[in-house]
Amino acid sequence: MLVTGAVLAADNKEKAAAVSEEDGKYFDADGNPTFKIENGTVDWYTFSGYRRYHSDCHVCHGPDGVGSSYAPPLIESMQSLDYGSFLSIVAEGRKNLGAGKENVMPAFGDNKNVYCYLDDIYIYLRARAVGAAPRGRPPRKADKPEAAKAYEASCMGG
């Protein structure tokens, strides 16, 4: 996939490895949000991303990001989609024309149920894309960090 004029190397578990943590949110060596899964327990943001993805995204992109007849599998495209491009596509939408077919990703920048949880959705899909998170609801999750509670209240206006 060409993104911003350069071919990106496929994401993998090593690149996605958490090297730092701030208020319960994990980051990779490049400062991108990422997941932390230990002994079957996912971090809060991966769990939240699972919930938010299945609330708003799975209708088109299928359960667990595996795709559908309507929209492509995100667990494939996420392997070569950088964080900034992900944010841009979800917020602004995108239209693809090819092989006589038009695919439209609507903009979700005005939908607080998506916009306020973009990092969470990204983290969940990244974990799925690199094979760190299996299909289905994570069996165990970390507690919701206070920072997540504060951000959610601020973003959702509550």
From TrEMBL:
Domain Cytochrome c: 48-111
SUPFAM superfamilies according to UniProt: Cytochrome c
Classification via InterPro entries: C-typ_cyt_methanol_metab-rel, Cyt_c-like_dom, Cyt_c-like_dom_sf
The keyword Cytoplasm belongs to this UniProt entry's keyword annotation: no
Superkingdom, natural source: Bacteria
Keyword field contains ATP-binding: no
Keyword set, alphabetical order: Heme, Iron, Metal-binding
One GO molecular-function entry: electron transfer activity
Protein name: C-type cytochrome, methanol metabolism-related
Native species: Ferirhizobium litorale
